[in-house]
Sequence to fold (106 residues):
Amino acid sequence: MKLSKVKNNKWVKRLTNKYFLILLVFAAWMFYFDANSFFVHKELSDDIKELENNKEYFQKEINHDKEFIEKLKDENEMEKFARETYYLKKENEEIFIIEHQDSLKD
Fold:
């Protein structure tokens, strides 16, 4: 008798309906197993966010480099940069590099 009561319950009838079961299997397939599943979309969204962050970073770097190039168009700035970075010197000029004790590598 109890089994017939369970079968006649309105929720059991709805949950065992063949259309509901097909819809449930279809939803599970689309959510987990399909090539366009939720997880694939989540991964692609994360990749897009990372690429947008990289784009912002590199755009800032490009702007910084453009400012640096504009600054180097002045001959005095270019000479200063060459002397500090590549230790270039003029003829008959001596350069002394002074390193402090705390800046030396062990």
